[in-house]
Specification:
TIM Barrel, 456 residues, four-stranded parallel beta sheet, elongated, Rossmann fold, 16 helices, 37% helix
């Protein structure tokens, strides 16, 4: 016996909801019930409690995505699950597809080493503060970046303090004295040793990361690898990723060659030479680099957040590694898993087109403005009619708002968001901030007109 779902909605959405469900040909049965309000987005839990007199023998209830209130409390009162659907009706097919194929993003295999660069010039307190921030973004190991020919008297104190705080720590230097001091202070990892400096690993317990003695020479790693294998020591190899036009493609080939030669040896990829030294948005770079790591079974990366355009690098790699892990485990492409790395564009930016928006506008009988965006432009409508433009300034003379400063300000904000969404191909939802994925802070700015007017 199939599941029966009760869809609660408003008067204006009934026709469209019915059409979408009919086209979906769902495996479940359903009942559509409108609660006596025009706009489904204004529905609240309190309203449902007052107006819903019959659950029509449903197994669960689906309410509009913008429904406000405690659904858990409502579920308990009604004795069956109550869930929010998508914010846009056009997303119902995708919503039910996601429900059927939920992918777990809690798992990953790759460890993120987040480097605190120029550490000799930073206080212990600031190092700890930055370590907690990097950890909150997804870092597994805090990498302490040393500087050549630069005194580092607080090195031991930094490592011991971080270890006391519970961090996993690596010491990063080409100077053997720094590596020895860091290892003896309790560092978990050492970056980077060559065949000439592998002896440092014999002096401390830290796990060494090996690099070629001569740049690009994989053969120079063999003696160091053999030494550590004979000692039955854990180690990681980093063949070194080069910047674009300075050996990038060759270095990718080098990683592939090393993996072919050593299928079981742990590897590291240092991504900063790409993300820091390429002036392009880093979300796509990190997605691609994590895809390379996934294919080559590279389980450690070293990343930095130095350049202003790369300030989300750790957060991006954290999400990217989870997406790639999930895609690999489910033997699928890394698409339709999570949209957090799609900052500028979206897969379905315009759920409604002009003909549908005209139909919505024809049914509006009140003075409140609705704003929507389609591939044909920005649309604003109320009982007085529908206006469409590409430039929001072209709309102002038609809205008759000269004596309503608060309303003008509100519509100005919303139309500016709508213009950005139209230009970039992003999803616009009135009264909600545009979503920028990993490229923005997690907190959204949402406010309705009634709230705004009470503030002015």
């Amino acid at each position: 016996m199939s599941e029966k779902i009760l869809f609660l909605t408003g008067k204006l959405a009934i026709k469209q909801l019915q059409q979408i469900l009919e086209k979906m040909q769902p495996e479940f049965s359903y009942k559509i019930h409108q609660l006596g309000l025009k706009v489904a987005g204004l529905m609240t839990v309190e309203m449902i409690e007052r107006r819903l007199k019959d659950t029509f023998n449903a197994d669960r209830i689906l309410v509009p995505g913008r429904c406000r209130g405690d659904l858990a409390k409502l579920s308990k009162k009604l004795g069956l699950p109550v869930e929010r659907g998508p914010k846009e009706l056009k997303d119902l097919p995708l919503f039910f597809g996601k429900q059927a194929h939920k992918i777990d993003l809690s798992q990953y295999k790759l460890k993120i080493f987040a480097e605190i660069v120029d550490a000799p010039h930073i206080s212990v307190e600031e190092i700890v503060k930055r370590a907690y921030y990097y950890q909150s973004q997804g870092a597994n190991v805090i990498d302490i970046g040393c500087l050549p020919e630069t005194a580092f008297p607080q090195l031991e104190e930094i490592i011991k303090t971080l270890k006391t705080e519970g961090f996993c720590v690596s010491i990063d230097s080409i100077v053997t004295d720094d590596l020895l001091r860091g290892g003896k202070a309790g560092a978990d990892y050492m970056l980077s040793l060559t065949n000439d400096s592998v002896w440092v690993a014999d002096e401390v317990a830290s796990i060494p990361i090996l690099i070629p003695a001569k740049h690009g020479d994989l053969q120079s790693l063999n003696k160091a690898i053999n030494h550590l294998q004979q000692q039955k020591r854990d180690f990681i190899v980093d063949p070194i990723l080069d910047p674009i036009h300075f050996g990038f493609t060759t270095s990718i080939v080098r990683y592939h060659q090393f993996r072919q030669q050593h299928p079981e040896i742990e590897m590291m990829l240092g991504v900063g030479n790409i993300t820091e030294l390429t002036h392009a948005d880093t979300g796509g770079m990190n997605a691609l680099l994590m895809g390379i790591c996934s294919e080559l079974n590279i389980n450690h990366i070293l990343t930095t957040q130095v350049s202003q355009h790369a300030v989300c690098a750790i957060k991006e790699t954290d999400l990217a590694r989870r997406i790639m892990f999930a895609a690999k485990e489910n033997n699928t492409l890394p698409k339709h898993i999570n949209s957090g790395l799609m900052s500028l564009h979206e897969t379905a930016p315009f759920p409604y087109q002009l003909d549908e928006i005209k139909d919505f506008a024809a049914n509006v009988k009140d003075p409140s403005f609705r704003i929507q965006v389609s591939s044909e432009g920005i649309h604003i409508y109320n009982r007085d009619g529908l206006n469409t433009a590409i430039n929001p300034f072209d709309l102002y003379p038609k809205l008759k708002l000269e004596n309503d400063g608060g309303h003008s300000f509100y519509l100005g904000v919303e139309l500016a968001r709508a213009q950005i969404a139209y230009q970039l191909g992003k999803r616009f939802t009135q009264d909600e901030a545009l979503l920028w994925g990993c490229a923005a802070n997690d907190n959204e700015t949402t406010i309705d007109l009634h709230t705004f007017k009470s503030m002015t």
